[in-house]
Amino acid sequence: MNASAEWEDLVSTALVGTDRRPRAGEAAGEIELLGRAAVHTLRMRAGTRPVASEPLSVAAPEEQPAVSRAAGGRLARILGGEQPRLLAEWLEVAAGRGYRLSPHLLPELLDHAVRDRSIRSHLGVLSGNRGRWLAGLNPAWSFLLEEVTVAATGSETAPEVWELGTSGDRRAHLAALRAADPAGARELLAVTWEKETPDDRAAFLEVLADRLSLDDEPFLEAALDDRRREVRHQAADLLTRLPDSRLASRMAERVARYVTVVDGRIHVTPPAACDSTMERDGIRAKPPRGTGEKSWWLQQAVARASLGVWPRLLGRPPRELVHMKIVDWGREVMAGWVRATVLQGDPEWARELFAWDPLADLLAALPPAEQEVVAADFVRRHGLDGQLIMVLGGAAAPWGPGLAKAVLQKIISVSETHPWNIGELAKLAGERIDPALCGMAERLSPEPPIQEVAALLRFRHDMLKELH
Amino acid sequence: MIERWNRDQVLALAPDASSQKAAQGVSSPGKWSGIGSAADSVWGECKGSGSKPYRACVDLSELAYRCSCPSRKFPCKHALGLLLLWSADGVPAAGAPADWVAEWLDQRRERAAKATGLAAEAAEATRAGGAGAGPADTRRAEQREQRVAAGLSDLERWLADQIRQGIAGSRRHDYWDDLAKRLVDAQAPAVAGTLSRLSSVLNGEDWPARLLSEYALLHLLCVAHRRLPAAVAASGSAVVDPGTPAGADGTGLVRRVRERVGFPVTKEEVLAGETVRDLWDVLGRRDEEQDRLIARRVWLRGRRTGRAALVLSFAMTGQALDASLVTGTTLDADLAFYPGSAPLRALVAVHHGAVSTGFPTASTVEQALDEVAAALAGDPWLDSWPVVLGPVTPAGRGPWHLAGSSGGIPLHPSTGTPWRLIAVSGGRPLTVAAEWTPRGLRPLITWDEEGQVIVL
Asked: How many domains does chain B have?
């Protein structure tokens, strides 16, 4: 009997007992068994030999520079729970600079990205070849294999990326080409368009939003007939942004039939049906729960019509239009105008509509410098409530000194009366104010909430310095 | 000046996960004032909920903490937060410690000097032999010997009964409780401890084999203890003679048996015994809780001697554990080993300071296994031993191994997939410190390509 067979025999005898399975010819078999088991146990422990084991493949060497130890340490702090809301900012900046992470941080971060999709796009660059090697070992991390692997800035991607790259890399390649040569990018996409997966088609179409022009119109018009709804919808959204597109003029013809001015009031007759041509132009037939069909169709038609049509049609500039009395259907028309303004990024309409209904999206449609002025003014006039927070969320970061001061003053004044209310505003301020203003914030007031904002700004300031 | 520890090393000092979290909450510079570091100490004042800030300071050379906060956790979140800030390079250097810090440091040094003096005296007294052992002590000692002998012979019979009746019926988690209590009464606490840990053996398909191994080793211990008088007679030395060095003449094994049964060795006795000065790498630690008692094992290895050491400390749940050894650091110290064969457990007798010397030399897989075999020869009941392996690569998949050129050693099942280790390795060989156990290796630390300590 070899050693392992004897051990098996000892175990199975011990399991049922020597009373039931006496060991042949031995008195006091149980003592003998215990003695032999002790010898076996020690022989196994002391006599362990190396076992054959399947080696792993070796990860490819890295091409990108590693983040500094200080920066890696700060990332570990954020992952450990210090200022957790800054994770995305850290990752975005580091990825934008083309850094890669120290390998020991990867498992924790990849696990994080399993739960939080929003950070995945940064990890393609940051995790480097080691990250993709790990993703090959752990199916839970396989999303990494689809992400962009090279930093977009400063590096020319090779044309073969379009043939061979991950879908993230192909998107990045298309985006880089789009920035340099809009027509070239569109033509490259047109060649493979039919063979792309529906998900990729929708994602690639999104890239065309950058440097969109009327030259793209025929391609987008064709995409209105795509098999996939997301693609059709994306194409319609892009065409809506082109006030001179055929779609915009078709939509203008439609709304001209719905709207008239009588006695200085706007009268509305909503569409009676949603026909296939309307559907092709991006109007969804089925309303969301709680909304009437006509209301839904009207709202969408207004949203997709070129904003230029209204002064022509109704004979008044936007400034007057937003204040005019609308007989019935007023809510739908206004909502449509807001949506159209956001899609078309029209600052004139945005200015007028924001004064009427301060929405974050409208603020975002203004040029950045004006956003700050308008937002600062709003902060001074408006009380601290959810709407204020939402509006500020629409102001482009980083906030300059004007908006920063207005918000910090607001925090000081509210902390005197309703100190329990300022948490969210203080957090937002710390995350959005230009971190270079941390010194200004530190000196502004010794009040704890201001010092907390200042500390957060200082944290970001140091963080960005480390990532330089 | 001491090389700054990294964040993982600091967090490894925390008594529990909630302390780690709390410490991170007070580790931002805005919470601190009057911070500084000088002469191997860090200090600062942290704003708490009260009007007076808490004063925290840490002696980095012989790790010790003080904080004016009322927390019973040790080290408290303020001391840890201060260390985190220090590890992130957020503590400015100062010419000299603040007054209150200097005062504390002086007191500590004074106390330490006094304690060393007392310990030396006590050790001297112990060495001089049995002074102060009156007739009452002798009687008590004899009584204990008798009780232990009776308890172990009960256990020996009980084990035989188990094997006769079959161990299939013992698969109940409280099966050993009564027996463990009887052995506590019989004054064999270490054996009682082994028995009460047996229930953990039941988790796993191979429980019959593992339980048989445990029973067999207990049986071996009972037999060894029964035969001690004969062994002692043969080697010609008394059973309780702390002055006898652990030799190859059998007395080492005698001492090991008595330790495994649970005869105590006093600190003075240990300090009076063999001390070894070396550069000791702190390889890692593991806390184990049982019956509200936490046992902390800190693994060390000597740079020059290659000796393995275990510093063991105990505390009730919620009370301070010894946090004086930082994972991944190297200290120049005299270690005093507990007497017996395969000496492992030790006390830090004299701390000469911290050093930084890169990472330790490693053994191959074969060398490590040989070392474990030699240790088992001196102590058959040994169930863990620190090793530094290299160059090794995580390999195997499914059951993971640490593999050298000729094969690998499996990892402990509780390790799962060692992702952090795998990530650092990238499929390339590295140096890994690990705890050997009969069921496999538990990885402790490794070093990345920049030589940074990575706590696993």
From this structure: 4
ipTM: 0.83
Given pLDDT bands bounded at 50, 70 and 90, which one contains residue B125? low
Q: What is the mean pLDDT of chain B?
A: 87
Residue A121 exposure: Cα atoms within 13 Å on the Cβ side: 12
Could you tell me the residue range of the domain that residue A17 belongs to? 3-46
Of B7, B406, B420, the CB nearest to A77: B7
Rounded-to-integer distance, Cα A50 and Cα A292, Å: 74
Is residue A33 within 8 angstroms of chain B, CB to CB?
yes
Residue A55 resides in a domain: no
Q: Do the Cβ atoms of B361 and B335 come closer than 8 Å?
A: no
For residues A307 and B236, the model is more confident at: A307
Residue B396's φ and ψ, nearest 5 degrees, are 110, -50
Query: Which of B25, B165, B377 is nearest residue A19 as measured by Cβ atoms?
Result: B165
Question: Cα–Cα distances in Å, from B350 out to B59, B117, B303, B337, B353?
Answer: 16, 11, 17, 12, 9
Q: How far is B151 from chain A (nearest CA, A)?
A: 18
Q: A31-55 burial, b if ≥16 CB within 10 A, otherwise e?
A: bebbebbbebbbeebbebebeebee
Q: How many cross-chain Cβ pairs, A to B, lie less than 8 Å apart?
A: 190
Both B154 and B259 in one domain: the answer is yes
pTM more than 0.90: no
Closest CA in chain B for residue A41 = B213
| Structural domain span for residue B14 | 7-101
Q: Residue A463: name the closest of A66, A90, A80, A85 by CA.
A: A90
Within B98-188, where are the H helices?
99-128, 135-165, 177-185
**Do A382 and A292 fall within a single domain?**
no
The last residue of one of the domains, among B322, B355, B388, is B355
A188/A352 Cα distance (integer angstroms) = 40
Give me B163's structure tokens. Answer: 């094997």
Region A50-68 average pLDDT: 91
Q: What is the pLDDT of residues B1-30, one digit of tens each?
A: 567 888 888 888 888 888 888 888 888 887
* B392 closest CA partner among B362, B360, B423, B436: B362
pLDDT band at A24 (very low <50, low <70, confident <90, very high): low
